[in-house]
Amino acid sequence: MFHDVTLVLFATTTGFTASGIVANVYRLMVTKTESPAGRVAYVVVMIAAGPTVLFDHAARAWRGKACSGTAFWLAAAICGYWSLALGLFVIQLALAV
Predict the structure, then answer these.
(1) Running DSSP on this structure, what letter comes out for residue 65?
(2) pTM for this one?
(3) Quick one: residue 14, left, alpha or beta (phi over 0 = left, psi -120 to 50 = alpha)?
């Protein structure tokens, strides 16, 4: 059982790390997304960068007292599940290469 829990934590961490890398590279490279192609690129990038961005917004709202603790933890759980799925994809991609 310990092996399974470790594998889930590793995959979740991998997904959250990949999400953070994609989000930060996108923030460094792109300043505005006003064109239709820019908006499509933004949506595609947010599929991979979503957990980091969502958790960042939830943490800022919770610190600023703009959301409840329940809403924050719900967002954190969604980020965790999203990171797990993304991490499993990244690990599978790494094993295929």
Answers:
(1) T
(2) 0.85
(3) alpha
Tokens 């993304």, residue?
A: 86
Q: Is the dihedral of CA 11, 17, 23, 29 positive or negative?
A: negative
In this predicted model, what pLDDT tens digit does every residue of 36-65 receive, in sequence order? Answer: 888 888 888 999 999 999 999 999 999 999
Q: Is 89 exposed, middle or buried (0-12, 13-18, 19+ CB in 10 A)?
A: middle
Find the radius of gyration of the CA atoms of the chain: 15
Token pair 């939830």 is found at 58
Residue 27: CB partners within 8 Å, gap ≥ 6? none
Using CB atoms within 10 Å of the CB of residue 86, give its burial: 0 to 12 exposed, 13 to 18 middle, 19+ buried.
buried
